[in-house]
UniProtKB/TrEMBL annotation:
Keyword Ubl conjugation: no
Name the UniProt record assigns to this protein: Anoctamin transmembrane domain-containing protein
Subcellular location: Membrane
Anoctamin transmembrane domain sequence ranges: 114-670
Entry keyword annotation includes Endoplasmic reticulum: no
Top-level taxon: Eukaryota
GO molecular function list: chloride channel activity
InterPro entries: Anoctamin, Anoctamin_TM
Organism: Cymbomonas tetramitiformis
GO-annotated cellular components: membrane
Transmembrane segments: 122-148, 160-177, 304-325, 345-363, 390-409, 547-570, 603-623
Major location (coarse): membrane
Length: 713
């Protein structure tokens, strides 16, 4: 019984939106990559010539890029996705109108279309950004109510707002992350279209292979070194050491079993793993290249040293900016109607906020270079290493001034001003950079191209990834005309599912002329694309790191900045459309990739949520409301519990902190990790597949019995 025949509920993923598309864009690119990588055809036609359609091009594009033999290759945006992505996603106010956009489509995204076009790696980021922004609406409403209460109440009631708001923030952060985990598992299950399973096997990085291959071809010493690495990976060095220690015993075994199967096995082992055989494997297989982790310890130590220097630079910048604030405070410098302290906090905070992304960008560039030198063998390990380094540095770079003011200076008023300055400066600078930099890059490239007077075909090499499953997709109007002609001629709908060369010949249209127009249209798109900046391979990682730092501001310092969720919500609404516009209109087409590090980012956000609960309560207990140069400064806990001792206040704070962590743990345990529909769907599919496998096994047993009885007869 096949449930797929009558109930789409049992389908492993949502049906493709366009019924005329057998495969989506990402699936076609995966198959096309497989064709490009596959070896050339050796099949022969009836006339003896080679049939090229049965093989591939035997080209590894990433290896050619690593070698410098290939300048660039472009993935073109499919025509079926071009209009909805550009008009409905990147600029929805032009398609829906401002009133409908603000009322109904503020967070609207066609996630399935994004995943089918750009892959799950980018689609997961936009899904998280939209989901996070929606949950910020309720958080922002509570923040607005807290601001109103702070302006209305006075005395002890006002002092309760900060701790209570911090407790709410800690519980909200874990509840939101658990709901996102359910949503993430649902999307991962929905977008798993079968091709993801083939990519889950770890593939050796072509950049890793090409670096070692260049060393192997330069000198014989490097070649012997790579052979020794390969032997250590196969643990052959242990066999050689054991054979050297027991050479007499080995010789006795060889003499005793000269004509036995053991002697043949030993000879086969020596023949399979001698130096010449290993050299052939190095030349033929990328998987043969291996570097022991102990060899790369110096590279990792060098990365730690450079990271330490950048950390020292960030701390120095923080000290200088805080010293600037103190100097402006003491000098009583005023701007307009602002007081000296307000002016000092504003100028110092904005200066620090401007220098933080500069240092982060320098560290990012150095980290990419250093991680390349670490020689990670797999893409997953490479990306994980970069993600952890960038997040840890961004964590220190973004929060060190706040923690210094809160822990060392204990000035609550100054902490609030610094929080507001860093949050606003970072958001405005990041949005301005993302909007202007692609546009300025395009203008500069067009200017350089015009001055050099380089035309297409004059020293410009491009490998086009064109949608081969439907040749006429680039000429959508001609496809529509062809279908109309089919209907007039009464051709059946089955022939209308796929417009191919044969159908064009049936319509008596010159296929070669049409293909030339298709290629000309694609080439024009390449010419327009090459002026755009390259899409960063770390786009998803950079954007997720930015959201993680923003989430950390809300989780760790919410007690001192009530309007933080409101600012983050407004920023994310703008950020969502800026990133969509940059992805669709202002950068080259991103190569679709599958996301493997969703669990890593989930762990990072959980770390921020738990750390936020601890930091929030500690700052409430430690930070003073007035400046700490007073003789008897008071914290929020001092004003809430004026008659208790310091030990009793500390005990209360520890109890509250442990209670918050217990509530967070209960939320994690009580919330289901997967949506109910996904669990039921998996149950139905597992039952169906088990039943089908059992039926297949019974048929095999029956067939073998019949065959056995036939032999007996």
């Amino acid at each position: 019984l096949d449930p797929y025949n009558y109930d789409p509920y049992f389908a492993p993923h949502d049906p493709i939106r366009d019924p005329e598309q057998v495969l989506n864009h990402c699936e076609k690119l995966v198959l096309l990559d497989d064709i490009i990588v596959s070896p050339p055809s050796e099949a022969r036609r009836d006339d003896g010539t080679v049939d090229p359609s049965q093989g591939g091009a035997d080209l590894f594009l990433r290896e050619l890029l690593s070698n410098g033999l290939l300048e660039a290759y472009y993935t073109l945006l499919p025509p079926a996705s071009r209009y909805p992505l550009r008009s409905m996603w990147a600029r929805p106010w032009l398609h829906f109108g401002w009133r409908k956009f603000l009322a109904q489509k503020l967070f609207w995204q066609d996630l399935d279309l994004i995943q089918q076009t750009y892959g799950s790696n980018i689609a997961f980021y936009f899904a998280f950004c939209g989901f996070y922004s929606k949950y910020l609406i309720g958080y922002a409403a509570v923040a607005l109510a807290t601001l109103l209460c702070d302006a209305y109440f006075e005395g002890e009631a006002q002092h309760w707002l900060g701790p209570l708001y911090g407790i709410f923030s800690s519980v909200w952060s874990v509840f939101f992350l658990q709901q996102w985990r359910r949503r993430q598992n649902h999307l991962a299950y929905t977008w798993d279209n079968g091709l993801a399973h083939s990519a889950r096997r770890k593939m050796v990085r072509p950049e890793f292979v090409m670096t070692l291959r260049e060393l192997y071809n330069e000198a014989g010493i490097a070649g012997h070194m790579l052979l020794s690495f390969m032997k250590s990976g196969l643990k052959l060095d242990r066999v050689e050491h054991a054979a050297a220690r027991n050479s007499k015993r080995a010789q006795m075994h060889r003499d005793a079993f000269d004509d036995s199967s053991l002697q043949k096995k030993l000879e086969a082992f020596d023949e399979a793993f001698n130096d010449s055989s290993l050299q052939k494997k190095l030349e033929a297989f990328d998987e043969a290249y291996f570097v022991p982790p102990s060899v790369m310890r110096w590279s990792r130590a060098r990365s730690l040293l450079i990271s330490g220097l950048f950390t020292l630079m960030s701390a120095t910048v923080t000290v200088v900016c805080l010293a600037l604030q103190d100097w402006l405070h003491d000098g009583d410098v005023r701007i307009l109607v602002l007081s000296g302290k307000m002016t000092g906090s504003l100028i110092g905070g904005v200066t620090n906020g401007l220098l933080i992304p500069v240092i982060a960008n320098l560290y990012r560039r150095s980290t990419l270079w250093l991680t390349d030198l670490e020689m990670h063998r797999f893409d997953q390990d490479y990306k994980k290493s970069i993600t952890v380094k960038l997040f840890l540095f961004q964590f220190f770079n973004s929060y060190n001034s706040l923690l210094y003011i809160g822990i060392w200076m204990r000035d609550g008023t100054r902490l609030r001003r610094q929080l507001l300055s860093l949050l606003l400066t970072g958001q405005m600078l990041n949005n301005a950079q993302e909007m202007l930099m692609p546009y300025l890059h395009k203008l500069s490239q067009q200017y350089i191209e015009t001055r050099k007077k380089l035309g297409v075909g004059h020293g410009f090499l491009a490998v086009l990834k064109i949608n081969q499953a439907r040749v006429l997709d680039a000429m959508q109007t001609k496809v529509q005309k062809a279908r109309k002609l089919f209907r007039r001629k009464g051709v059946s709908k089955k022939k209308m599912d796929l417009v191919s060369k044969s159908s064009v010949r049936e319509m008596r249209i010159d296929a070669s002329e049409l293909q030339e127009e298709v290629f000309r249209a694609a080439l024009e798109q390449v010419v327009d694309t090459k002026f755009l900046p390259e899409h960063a391979n770390q786009f998803q990682m950079d954007e997720m790191c930015e959201l993680a730092i923003q989430f950390g501001f809300l989780a760790m310092f919410s007690s001192f900045l009530y309007m933080g969720p409101i600012l983050c919500l407004l920023n994310n609404i703008l950020e969502l459309r800026i990133d969509a516009s940059k992805l669709v209109l202002q950068t080259q087409m991103a190569e679709p990739k599958i996301m493997f590090d969703q669990n890593l980012w989930q762990g990072i956000f959980y770390f921020l949520a738990v750390t936020g609960a601890i930091v929030n309560l500690f700052l409430v207990l430690h930070v003073c409301f007035e400046a700490c140069d007073d003789e008897d400064p008071e914290t929020a806990m001092d004003k809430l519990f004026p008659h208790e001792t310091d030990a009793e206040r500390l005990t209360y704070a520890v109890y509250v902190e442990h209670g918050i962590i217990l509530v967070q743990f209960c939320v994690l345990m009580l919330s289901a990790r997967q949506a109910d529909g996904v669990v039921e769907d998996k149950y139905c599919q597992d039952l169906f597949f088990i039943t089908e496998a059992d039926q297949y096994q019974k048929e095999q047993v029956r067939g073998s019995r019949k065959e056995h009885l036939g032999h007996i007869n």
